[in-house]
Amino acid sequence: MGLVFRGRAIRLGDDVNTDEIISYKYKGKTIDEKELAQHVFEDLDPRLPRMIRPGDIIVAGRNFGCGSSREHAALAIRGAGVRVIVAESFARIFYRNAVNLGILPVEAPRSLIEETSTGDTIVVSVEDSKVYNETRRVAAEARLPPPWLLKAVLEGGVAAYYKKYKRLPWMEKDTLRA
Questions:
Q1: Is the alpha carbon torsion for 1, 165, 174, 83 positive or negative?
Q2: What gap in Å lies between CA 172 and CA 159, rounded to an integer?
Q3: Which of 7, 48, 69, 120 could form a disulfide with 55 if both were Cys (CB 3.0 to 4.6 A apart)?
Q4: What is the pLDDT of residues 143-173, one digit of tens each?
C-alpha cells in the first residue's frame, strides 16, 4: 500500500468554521501551536482538546475550515498532533493553510464520512488514493493534493520544503508534467 496514515477518527460535522476550530479569543493572544492546541475544537465540544491525541485523523463533512483566513486554525490542529484531515470538502483558504503547514487534506465521498464514528480506525493510502475505515470495513476513493503539492505537504508544508530545498516543488522540472 505504500505511504499510509493510520489513526483514530475524530468525527465532526459539516461547516466546521475556523472559530469553532480555535476560538477568536485565542487567535489574538498567540501563534504558538501547542498553546492553541489546548483549546482546539473546544467551542464544538469542551472535551475535544483533552480527547485528541497525536496521530488522530479528523473526519468531517463538507466545507471544513470555512471562515477566517488566518492560519491559527490549522496551527491549532497541527499543534494537537493531527496530520491528516478527511472531509467531503474543504474551504479553499483552510485547504491552503493546511498544506502550507504540512497537514494533509483528503477529500472523500459523503458515504464514507457518514459511515465513520469517533474511535473508528481510519487508514489513508497516499499511493492508492483511498481512504479505509478499518473498523466498519468500508473503503472509498480519495482526492489528494496534486503530486507537486503533496510533495511539500509530506515534507512538513510549503515553508518547510523551501527551507530544506531552497526551492518550491512546482519549480522542479519533473513536477511540471504532473
A1: positive
A2: 16
A3: 7
A4: 999 998 999 999 999 989 999 999 887 776 5
Binning the chain into helix, strand and coil, the percentages to the nearest 5 are 35, 20, 45
pLDDT digits (tens, 9 = 90+) for 113-140: 999 999 999 999 999 999 999 999 999 9
Domains, the chain, ranges and CATH? 4-144 (3.20.19.10), 146-178 (no CATH)
Rounded to the nearest 10 degrees, how much is the dihedral formed by the CA atoms of 19, 25, 26, 30? 120
pTM: 0.93
Give me the helices (H) in the chain, please: 18-21, 24-27, 33-37, 48-51, 72-79, 92-100, 110-115, 147-154, 158-165
At which residue does the C-alpha cell 503530486 appear?
A: 147
Whole-angstrom CA distances from 23 to 53, 84, 152 are 19, 21, 28
Cell numbers for 145, please give them.
493534493
